[in-house]
Design goal:
The protein is α/β, with parallel strands linked by helices. Helices cover 55% and strands 7% of the residues. The N and C termini lie far apart (92 Å).
Length: 511
Amino acid sequence: MIEAHNHSIAIGGNVQGSTIAIYASRPDNQAAIQAILEAKEQSPPRPGELPSHSYISLGRNALFTGREEHLEHLAGLLCAPSGAGEEAVIVTQAITGMGGIGKTQLAVEFAYRYGHRFRWVYWLDAGDPDLLNEQLADAARKMGLQADDAAARANLTLEVWRAHGPTLLLLDNLEDERGARAILHRLRNHNLRLLLTSRLTRWPDDLGLTTISLEEFTPQESRAFLRHYLPESRATDADLDALAARLGHLPLALELAGRYLKGHPRLTVDDYRQRLEQVFEHPSMRGWRPERGSPTGHDLNLMETFALSWREVERRGGPAARQIFLCAGYLAPNTPIPPDLFDEGLELTEDEVDEGLDFLVERGLLKEMGEGSAAIHPLLAEFARRLTEETEGVRAAVSRFLAALADRAARTNRAVDQSGDYGLYAPILPHVRAAADHAERIAPPGEEAVRETAGRLWNSLGYHLHALADLAGARAAIERALKIDETVYGPEHPNVAAAVNNLGSVLQDLG
């Protein structure tokens, strides 16, 4: 029989606890629940099966790869006994990370792998909090429960789940903090185990969320995943490793690449990788063969996946966050960015930079690296550069940022000369290299300021590499600087003479 809990559940519908107790005690509802419970006792679910009257909108993905540590961690928390009375434990887990990282896939796999250990498993699309009542009311219908209106059916569903738990509730795409607060408050109960997915990596402490920040695949996981699509007769391990590195080991991008390559059996992996120079333009990343569907039901367009997060930055992030993200696209990916680069390059205060970085990390567009620094994923860096090319008025700000970085590099070289401390240049070295390359690429004929900046960056890098005795690297960098400077200034300019002098010193040391 159903125990009638006499507490109020009134969020989303004006239904008092005593009214719910009446609905729960109705003979027809009692009979429906009793039949479900008896069926579960007679035929309990096995591993890989969901309990009867559970619901997940997605099937299990046969290509699921890796993430074993995360699955075991979730099982240790969500499947543990909740206790009773004052010792009852409320467990809420969040899987967070950038778009395309595989949050929903991990939640689905957990539900199928461990769902047999729960009385009920139910999937709720939390992208629109206003639809929560409708989904809960639909759960009552699936269980055969009767009430006078949708709000009463929704609350009756929660009452049954609480009384006969443990119940695993999966809340997919919970992105709005205010909506999340109301949802989590309503669902807080030791018999309701919550597993949510979100691009938000940071949540208010008072919500009691424990988060798993999902990272890209490891190289081994990337290779194993691509092998589902490409047998050894089609591609070597080296081919797959190079492709995975090009796509930043992002699960969504790897899935789109694998689908496309399998559909084009005469296309080699190497040829395909070379065609990804403009990754967002390639058909494989733009919703190729959408009729084949997606394991998660999400968009198969990589650009649109990132654009969802970017629209939040445009709507709520403020000018500092927007400028920081766009400029980060011209720096070295997967490498800590000293935050004071943005202080100087964008003429922002420390507070503005810290708040902008915090917002971008929170939205999964940058990755926190410790000590106030952040890093950008290589595909997000390409996304940022594409936005710069398409957004009017942005290029000038990026150009000023790159010029400020060139100034910083020159000052740092002088500081190294005076102190002998080569470590002063180390934090900016990869960023100077990346910025020099991008500045050279984006400078069209006639845009001499950007070309001049590219020359200065290459010359600074070459000067430092010479000091580090990386003579081959120094020669390559200074030769690029000299070629740019001759075009910008003409062959007789003092800046050209300085580059020639630096190159001559390197060539002398090379013998």
